[in-house]
Amino acid sequence: MAKNKKNNQQGGQVHQLPTRCKAESCNSKIARMNFCDEHFTWFKEGLITKEGQKPKDFDKKYNDYMNRHKKVS
C-alpha cells in the first residue's frame, strides 16, 4: 500500500499570482486584471497594452484622454 501512495503523488508546480501592477514602473497593489485602479482605466482607454506597455501612439491617445477628462472636471 505504501508503494502505491508514492506512485500516485504528483509533483505539480505552484504558480505565484502577481501582487503588483503590470504597468511599467508601477508598484501599486493590483485591483483588476493585474492593474491598479489608475492603470486599469488607462488599459480601458487604450493607453497601455494588456502586457502593461505603452503603445506606439501613446502621446496621441494620452492627449485625447486628457482632453476628454478635462471637460468632465
Give structural notes:
The chain is elongated and about 60 Å long. It is built from 3 helices and no strands. The protein has helices at 2-8, 37-45, 58-72.
Q: Tell me, what's the shape?
A: elongated
What is the ordering of alpha helices and beta strands? Answer: HHH
Q: Number of DSSP helices?
A: 3
Largest sheet: none
Number of separate strands? 0
**Between the first and last Cα atoms, what is the distance in angstroms?**
71 Å
* Helicity range: 40-55%
Q: Regions with pLDDT < 50 over 5+ consecutive residues?
A: none
Instruction: Give the helix/strand class.
Output: mainly alpha
Output mean pLDDT: 85
Task: Provide the β-strand percentage band.
Answer: under 5%
| Whole-angstrom Rg | 21 Å
Short description:
It contains three helices and no strands. With 73 residues, it is mostly helical.
Describe this protein with a few key phrases.
single chain; 73 residues; mainly alpha; elongated
Chain-wise SSE layout:
Elements: H1 2-8, H2 37-45, H3 58-72
